[in-house]
């Protein structure tokens, strides 16, 4: 697992108190965010970390009650009081709801969280070997949500959406991807465990054969960042992949991919699809990362079909909690969490229904904590 490439603070022998914002959001977010809180509360004292928590609001359910999906107070507290945060899930209505827009998308923009980092790694001995990180640009592409619908002269409707790719945002996400690749290689060189990748690589994913200007700019900028910084990146193998063939190869030969960087929409689709390679969206973490803040966010949705049943898989949130700690500059504590999760998965006994088990959310949490 990658270590922190944006060290917001340094590990110290003195007790450090960190304030973490908890934003459950909708659906099972209310059931899995407490898992992250319990994990942090039970970290061994040897890591010299103490935690304070502040509960914050956001989500579609909040919007239906108050008319606001992301209160200004939530953003203000995160910016002025918190060291990091955990976000649970958000319900997304399939049809337009006047005045509503996704609070997590807005939060990424307001907090300057320009990268969504999604590691997908299999447990040794279980399933196909997978060890990739999908680095998704987080602020633009079709997610700028600039759409319009109009009628043609014959009365038929036409809907249009803006796809925005900028050199500035692409430069930042490309640098993030290359830095992650170097950091992952550094870790591989200093561990005795068997590694899937012998050399770092970054695969730039695009559709510039059709979208020659927007995706063309993304592709050209990623390559330019690589070429300009070749002295730093010369040990990284630069690759490119058209997005449709990327999907095909990701499922056929996932072991060939190390770090994948993509525009917002492709990164969203690829990261959710990659979760199928390791068994469940309930296993896959992510972090929304900027230069000064990180929010851990499980990749699953609000899952209304299992809400309130106490069977949601907490592992994606627990891994997202560890990933948040990595980007806050506490990789040793994060590694402890990863090891405990891997031990739970390797034993393959205490598991939620999405993995073929019959354990509750809380039983999985307790099994992981006992492995610290």
UniProtKB/TrEMBL annotation:
| Magnesium recorded as keyword | yes
Superkingdom as given in the UniProt entry: Eukaryota
List GO terms (cellular component aspect).
Answer: mitochondrion
Q: Which UniProt keywords apply?
A: Amino-acid biosynthesis, Lysine biosynthesis, Magnesium, Metal-binding, NAD, Oxidoreductase, Phosphoprotein
Classification via Pfam families:
Iso_dh
The protein's annotated pathway: Amino-acid biosynthesis; L-lysine biosynthesis via AAA pathway; L-alpha-aminoadipate from 2-oxoglutarate: step 4/5
Q: Which InterPro entries match?
A: IsoCit/isopropylmalate_DH_CS, IsoPropMal-DH-like_dom
* The family this protein is said to belong to: Belongs to the isocitrate and isopropylmalate dehydrogenases family.
Protein name stated in the entry: homoisocitrate dehydrogenase
